[in-house]
Amino acid sequence: GQQLNQSPQSMFIQEGEDVSMNCTSSSIFNTWLWYKQDPGEGPVLLIALYKAGELTSNGRLTAQFGITRKDSFLNISASIPSDVGIYFCAGQGGDTGTASKLTFGTGTRLQVTL
Amino acid sequence: NAGVTQTPKFQVLKTGQSMTLQCAQDMNHEYMSWYRQDPGMGLRLIHYSVGAGITDQGEVPNGYNVSRSTTEDFPLRLLSAAPSQTSVYFCASSYSPRTGLFFGSGTQLSVL
Question: Taking CB atoms and an 8 Å cutoff, what residues of chain A touch B46?
């Protein structure tokens, strides 16, 4: 089955730095979603994107829906220790065959050093 | 408001045993789904349901069975557990997958 490719797979950053991660697909999606997972918990929705080119912010987080509809980007500004976790992208709809499924990326593990 | 509740939190099975992972939501969501999470593989869809009485297969359905007799509950059954089914299982619900899923806290399953 299809999986979305996320990069980087993991990253160490210093507190206060900005973070960028991206997600790419061979398929077109109608919706892009970004989730964060804390250890021992289920993923929590951060941002939803519904239109190609859309740029949406949620506090220090900013995400963009790629123009080609095959990619999306997440930026975190001024990282803090509680940003530690795994970030997942997810795509819905488009040419994946059904609107009833979310396809998830492989995740980017973020670790922050003080 | 409890959200999505999964039980048990942890489970150890022997190869060949069967069991049911429970999932309940109190948000009146029509859409419910089960994912498994393995290291380096992200979340993979096992089965999903768009409403009571309607279920469909996801990406990795083999060895799992589901039913949806009520809007609130969506149990996942392992018919004959295998070591390859060792994983963390997440149940999720929403009004529509397009608006994003609400996840439970997961069940960590080990099959020996």
Answer: none
